[in-house]
Amino acid sequence: MPRSASGRIPALLTPRLVVPALAGLLFLALAAAIASGRSFAFDRSLILLFREPGNPAVPIGPAWFQEAVRDMTGLGSFVGLFFMMVAATLALWICDRRRLAAGLVTCVLLAVLVSSGLKIAIARERPDIVAHAALTFTASFPSGHAFLSAAVMLSIAGFVGLASRRDDVALLALILASTMILLIGLSRIYLGVHWPTDVLGGWCLGVVWSSLATAWAGRRAQHSETA
């Protein structure tokens, strides 16, 4: 291990390992608490923060803003993420990065299965303190929009970074993906269809998922180059 006198950060304390590790621990803590029936006071407070005072049936903001939020939440739907995955997969395939293309498809399909399984297993009820401004069909925890958008977009950003081999391209992809993931998650709270802890849990799991997928793809790419 690096010596402390050298001024280097120990390998095990780099952000690539620390962030997913902390995210994983937070997700497990939330999942255990919610599965045991625990509720969080700030969940209610944050949802009501996005509602008109004294009239929780109405989200804050003008009609155009409410419609913009619905458009944003649509980017995290199965349809929106499917087309993002297809576009990224085809781009990787055309650029002769076929291992990365196949890895991305595998990552996304497994994430969908895990999301559905967790929702069924934990079976948390959707928020009932405000009127839902979007249709819902599954249980609440974790937020599928938050988890899948993080898993898909961060994986795409990671795979683009691996394919390009350029730090500036990787950073740009990461910033754009993170911005969209943040807005999609907040839109679910604004629309009243998820508790904030659903979204937080989805983000955490998505960070872990994409980190593992990118690390796996990176090792495979490196192995293929040295083989």
Secondary-structure element series: HHEEHHHHHH
Note the overall shape.
globular
Would you tell me the overall average pLDDT?
Answer: 87
Largest sheet, spatial ordering of strands: 1-2
Helix content range: over 70%
User: What gap, in angstroms, lies between the N and C termini?
Assistant: 28 Å
Main sheet: strands, sense, barrel: 2 strands, antiparallel
Give unreliable regions as ranges: 1-7
The helix/strand class is: mainly alpha
Number of DSSP strands?
2
Separate helix tally? 8
Please compute the radius of gyration using only Cα atoms.
19 Å
Q: Percent of residues in beta strands?
A: under 5%
Blueprint (SSEs and pairs):
Layout: H1 15-35, H2 41-49, E1 51-52, E2 55-59, H3 63-74, H4 78-94, H5 98-122, H6 144-164, H7 167-190, H8 196-226
Antiparallel strand pairs: 1-2
Helix pairs in contact: 1-8, 3-7, 4-5, 4-6, 5-6, 5-8, 6-7, 6-8, 7-8
What keyword list fits this structure?
single chain; 227 residues; mainly alpha; two-stranded antiparallel sheet; 8 helices; 3% strand; disordered N terminus
